[in-house]
Amino acid sequence: MKLPKYRLISNEIKKKISASLWKAGSQIPSETELANHFSASRMTARKAVDELVNSGVLERVASVGTFVKEPAAQSSLLEIRNIADEIRSRGHVHKMTVLSKLMLIPNDAIAFTLSLNSRTVYKIIIVHWENDQPIQLEERYVNAERVPLFLQQDFSKITASEYLNSIAPVTEAEITVEAVMPTKILKHNLQVDDGVPCLKVTRITHSHGQPICYAVLYHPANRFKLTSHLNIVN
Predict the structure, then answer these.
(1) Out of 70, 102, 166, 183, which residue is the most buried by the measure of CB atoms under 10 Å away?
(2) Are 165 and 147 in contact (CB under 8 A)?
(3) Residue 34's pLDDT is what?
(4) In this structure, how many other beta carbons lie within 10 angstroms of the beta carbon of residue 33?
(5) Could you tell me if 182 and 165 lie in one domain?
(6) pLDDT at 230
(7) Domain count along the chain
(8) Quick check: 76 and 227 in contact, CB under 8 A?
(9) Are residues 59 and 129 located together in one domain of the fold?
């Protein structure tokens, strides 16, 4: 079956991007130039570009042109990885801003979740950056009995998950994901525009049967996605 001309154009654009001939952030030819190159109408070229803009491959900048869009950061839903490693694997720079480090009395829900015998818990709030954009706000509660030196760590240099995994490796996790509209403080810390939701990932991790931490991770939905891959054995 012969593909429509606009689809041939969009496929060719995607091939050039996949082959790194057109890199993220680079401007593509104008719709007029694309139409001339493919011997098509400008309307056909526009339809091809529209398709790629709508799918997140390209983005238009008013009065400037159309550019290859930076791929959204992504994380596996089925695998717990250190966010610093994820960001570096994309060839980007990771850094952290520590907003708070506290020892506090938890509410009943946190105390129950972490099976606390004492009435103290450690809490940190950290913003993770990918290059010059905040990509995650981490709000984490840690079992102070199980990880007594947690607050003594420099979380501008080592991630909480990296330290915790060295002390109490994760053997079990409960994960939930939901879309939420950010509060004013969350919008400020993640530099989220009005009307943009966040992905809220709630994660409870255990080490050898002992609950270690309860983490709530917020990501700007327009700059982050979660993926999963399953191998099915029949």
Answers:
(1) 70
(2) no
(3) 92
(4) 12
(5) yes
(6) 39
(7) 2
(8) yes
(9) no
Residues 136-151 pLDDT 10s: 999 999 999 899 999 9
> Is the CB of residue 197 less than 8 Å from the CB of residue 181?
yes
Domain of residue 65, CATH code = 1.10.10.10
Q: Which phi and psi angles does 29 have, rounded to 5°? A: -60, 155
Answer whether 80's CB lies under 8 Å from 201's CB. no
Tokens of 138: 């981490």
Paired tokens of 31: 């719709």
CATH number, domain of 176, equals 3.40.1410.10
Rounded Cα–Cα distance for residues 179 and 222 (Å): 12
Among residues 26, 40, 23, which one has the least CA distance to residue 48?
A: 40
Neighbour order of strands in the sheet with 94-104: 94-104, 121-130, 133-142, 210-220, 198-207, 172-180
Query: Which pLDDT value is given to residue 228?
Result: 45
Contact, 121 vs 146, CB < 8 A? no
Residue 234 falls inside a structural domain: no
Q: What is the mean pLDDT of the chain?
A: 86
Q: Which domain holds residue 173?
A: 83-220
C-alpha 130/C-alpha 136 separation (Å) is: 9
Query: Domain boundary at 57, 74, 91, which?
Result: 74
Same domain, residue pair 144 and 207: yes
At residue 172, the 3 state secondary structure works out as strand
User: For each successive 10 residues of the chain (234 residues), what is the average pLDDT?
Assistant: 83 85 87 92 92 85 85 53 83 93 91 82 96 93 93 94 90 89 95 91 90 93 61 46
Alpha-carbon gap, residue 116 to 108, rounded angstroms = 10
